[in-house]
Specification:
This protein has 307 residues and is of the alpha+beta class. The protein folds into two domains: 75 residues, no CATH class; 227 residues, Jelly Rolls. The protein contains five helices and 15 strands. The strands form two sheets. Strands 1, 3, 4, 6, 11, 12, 13 and 15 form an eight-stranded antiparallel sheet that branches. A seven-stranded antiparallel sheet has the order 2-5-14-7-8-9-10, with no helix packed on it. Helix 1 packs across helix 4. The longest helix is centred in the first third of the chain and has 20 residues. It is globular and about 60 Å long. The two termini are 34 Å apart.
């Protein structure tokens, strides 16, 4: 199954508009390379005779089948959630930690409004967390999704914080486990954490971890993110991430936990080290803004969810 899923993904990506920058080159290499979905336009149609001369019969069949289904897939692509906060409400979200998120008219990424989340370590009821949890969709393990959003951080400070989480829903009895995907910001920039475990019962010693550098914060400016994820705790998982239109992560491998339920999305400010109100820190307050949040299904695309 992992091999079949990978080959189907290559075939589908090869024929879907907006996914492959150079179709001819992708056909030549698709036997050996798992193709990435990139924000570019399909360079042109290709002929069956050209395909026959380059790749094996089984792969030809997958490509032709994907070609036949591509228009239907595009027509059936579904945006599962979209929020520009222009309705001036948090419908579809649930507060996690402090219930202090507000709608503001500046700074905005587009439209008229954005979401503002603040955390005050000394004054807030929950000193370590002001977040919004997306109520639907929750993500299913074994399925593929596209996620887009934009955030602005005036200043992260040395005591960094997590700005986005795909948060696990652990099975009863699990003894460990970080979140499958974490976006962390501090004064040095962004980092992306990927955590996973194929074992049915997770302990602190069984989980794996990957960390990717994601560049500067762009303080005072919005940063656009697009995440393409195919959830799997096996080797056939996929994670692609773009920051401001440039791919910064192209990871193939496990990216979640062997749990009955898949993760859910959270945005906001989470600082585990602030659970105690005491201790030195560079500042006791944090602020972040969000706009253009979208979640698409497997038939969606970069262009459909990108801010």
């Amino acid at each position: 199954m992992p091999e079949l899923r990978a080959r189907w993904r290559v075939a589908r990506a090869t024929v879907t508009a907006g996914r492959i920058a150079d179709t001819d080159e992708s056909i030549r290499t698709c036997r050996n390379t798992r193709s990435s979905s990139v924000p570019a336009t399909l360079s042109g149609a290709f002929s069956v005779s050209y395909i026959v001369g380059v790749i094996p019969i089984k792969t030809q069949f997958l490509i032709l089948l994907a070609s036949a289904l591509s228009l239907a897939s595009s027509a059936n692509a579904e945006i599962l959630f979209s929020d520009k906060f222009d309705e001036q409400s948090f419908s579809g979200w649930r507060p996690s930690g402090n219930n202090t998120a507000t709608i503001v008219n500046s700074p905005i990424r587009s439209g008229n409004y954005a979401a503002e989340l603040k955390l005050d370590r000394l004054m807030d009821r929950v000193p370590w967390r002001t977040e919004l949890r997306l109520q639907r969709p929750s993500f299913d393990i074994g399925k593929e999704y596209w996620i887009g959003f934009s955030n602005q951080i005036p200043s992260a400070g040395d005591a960094g914080f997590f700005t986005m989480q795909l948060h696990k829903r652990p099975d009863a009895g699990d003894q460990g486990g970080r979140q499958p995907l974490l976006l962390r910001a501090n004064s040095s920039g962004y980092n992306i954490h990927v955590n996973y475990d194929a074992n049915a019962m997770t302990t602190a010693s069984t989980e794996g971890r990957q960390i990717f550098s994601a560049g500067s914060l762009n303080n005072g400016q919005y940063t656009d993110w697009v995440i393409h994820v195919d959830f799997s705790f096996q080797s056939d998982g996929l994670l692609e991430i773009w920051k401001n239109g440039s791919m910064i992560v192209n990871y193939q491998g496990p990216n979640c936990y062997n749990d009955a339920l898949g993760p859910y999305m959270k945005v906001g400010i989470y600082i585990p080290g602030w659970k105690s109100r005491s201790g030195a820190t560079d500042a006791n307050k944090r602020t972040i803004y969000y706009d253009e949040v979208k979640v698409g299904d497997a038939a969606s695309s970069y262009n459909e969810v990108a801010p």
